[in-house]
Amino acid sequence: MKIKREALRRIFTIGLGVLGCLALPISGCQRTEPSNAAPVNKKALVALRAERRAMAHRPRRIIFNNDGDDIMFSGESKTLVEEFLKKRTTALLGSQVDTIFYSDAQSFGYFTHRTKVGETFMTQKFPVDGQIRENATPDLIKSGIDPLQLMVEFCRKNNLEIFWSCRMNDTHDSYTAGYGPYFFPKLKKDHPEYLVGGKDEIPPYGPWSSVDYTRPEVRDLAFKYFEEVCQNYDVNGIELDYFRHAMFFNSVAWGGQASPAELDMLTDMVRRIRKMTEVESIKKGKPILLSIRVPDSVEYCRAIGLDLEKWLAEGLVDMLTVTCYFQLNPWEYSVKLGHKHGVSVYAGLSESRVKAGMATGWPSDFQRNSNLSYRGRAMQAWQSGVDGIYMFNYFDPNAPVWRELGDKQELLVKNKVYFMSPRGYGYPGSYVKDGDKFRNTPTLNVANPIGLLANQTVKMTLVMAEDFPGAEKRKLRPEITCHLWVKDMAAGDRVDVKMNGRLLENVKASGESLDYRIEPADVKNGDNVFELTPQTASQVDLQDFIVAVTYLAPQEKVKNI
């Protein structure tokens, strides 16, 4: 059901009082209607919400989260706009990117867009790691525009969605070296009592410069930041990014878990933001969506202060993106959770920070940040039923990922590499005490190996998805290989590997790498169970595990075994 914009604009003149008088309150959010409230057109509000639901579930192949660093450069005023867009945006045209999330917060309340509520980052030059970085924001603002407005105009012109993404507690300013001192806003200087710690009072969990959301002033400011953007910029939606960085309460920073009262504080703030988006939606005559990015565990979210399941159940959220530094559950967990409440779910593919993989001697395609690895990760997410792919901390607009990861059918018959643990460990315990107990995914990588005991079997599950019949129609022949990196193997030792009950043969040892051939008939779309049994005299360490899929023309020979 679609509602015309002009009709919505004429419904009524909206003031702040509407926040308390909107008809059909969201479940669980009861507010007393003020006696002087303007009459509400209930039918129009129902239509608005119906259109919002339709917008929330429109196809989005890839969402690109741009962290706003593209304005950190110097340039001639005549070409400033062109240079800014060229850095990360222009080359995306014609790709599978349907939506841009523009995140321009340098710290809590410190932005590169024009703001009267927060502070605009106007430092033009500052040192980072021994080099001078430059900020073009002041020059843009002098010319009457800012980075967020430019991004909105670009997306409007090119039929792309644009969301403003705000990191609910960005704490890059906690780093005493590099750009930390330059990203430290006046708000935090003037109000150290808003923070969970200090430079000389470092809490055991989370960065010390995190703002404490028990403070009503902090919650009010967060609300006003979103309200100001919704009023002044023609955005399709807003994102509350709770994963960069995931610290919100003083109690959690100092070793506790969020209390019911603290959970309610953030829930009330999200309700308030949701109500505001409805107010501004009716003013503009079109819906403003609300998206969140959170850890992928209801229990972990509650521990740090996010009552995720309540937010979903109350209809406060339209879109859900999960994972960043770590992944706690298989993708299916979040898909089931979001879809249960009618919310679209996006798989966040942050860059891997496992750097030691290059030491294995494996080829570059076998590294976690390779294009083939991103294909495997995306295919695992699509297989689970996600609604789209969300790219974070990946900024090369000319990279192949933007034209590949959003088409699951094409991706099925492309070469790819599946990692048993693509993100590595990630340290969920850095944000809350005993945070590791919430993890239900493997963490295998060179920094976190698994000890294999002699003659004892370890089972591991790897999600894969391929289209071998489709490849055959294209006259492509699949070659599948399994590769283990095992340390401390003695001469004559071996590791027997079964996949889905069948022993893998044709093993070849190359240094610490053990390579096995897999027959296509043994591969399942979905869970593939591997059983590893070391035939050794003592324990050996499994440091990494991948499966590579290569599609060859008839005359080609497989290269990875």
Structure description:
- This protein is an alpha/beta fold and 561 residues long.
- The chain has 2 domains: 59-354, TIM Barrel, CATH 3.20.20; 435-552, Sandwich (Jelly Rolls), CATH 2.60.120.
- 26% of the residues lie in helices and 22% in strands.
- It contains 15 helices and 23 strands.
- Strands 1-2-8-9-10-11-12-13 form an 8-stranded parallel β-barrel, surrounded by 5 helices. Strands 14, 15, 17, 20, 21 and 23 form a 6-stranded antiparallel beta sheet that branches.
- Helix 7 (216-232) packs parallel to helix 9 (260-284).
- The longest helix is centred in the middle third of the chain and has 25 residues, at 260-284.
- The N and C termini lie far apart (56 Å).
In short:
The protein has 561 residues and is of the alpha/beta class. The protein contains 15 helices and 23 strands.
| The number of domains | 2
CATH class of the largest domain: Alpha Beta
Count of alpha/pi helices = 15
Tell me the number of strands: 23
Q: Radius of gyration from the CA trace?
A: 25 Å
Low-pLDDT parts are 1-38
Strand arrangement, major sheet: 1-2-8-9-10-11-12-13
- First CA to last CA: what distance? 56 Å
Features:
single chain, 561 residues, alpha/beta, TIM Barrel, Jelly Rolls, 2 domains, eight-stranded parallel β-barrel, six-stranded antiparallel beta sheet, 26% helix, globular
Secondary structure: elements and pairs:
Layout: H1 5-9, H2 42-56, E1 62-66, H3 80-88, E2 97-103, E3 105-107, E4 110-111, E5 119-120, E6 125-128, E7 131-134, H4 137-142, H5 147-157, E8 161-167, H6 186-190, H7 216-232, E9 237-241, H8 250-253, H9 260-284, E10 289-294, H10 298-304, H11 308-313, E11 319-322, H12 331-340, E12 344-350, H13 371-384, E13 388-392, H14 408-412, E14 416-419, E15 450-452, E16 458-464, H15 468-473, E17 477-487, E18 494-499, E19 502-503, E20 508-510, E21 513-518, E22 526-535, E23 540-552
Parallel strand pairs: 1-2, 1-13, 2-8, 4-5, 8-9, 9-10, 10-11, 11-12, 12-13
Antiparallel strand pairs: 3-4, 6-7, 14-23, 15-23, 16-22, 17-21, 17-23, 18-19, 18-22, 20-21
Helix pairs in contact: 7-9
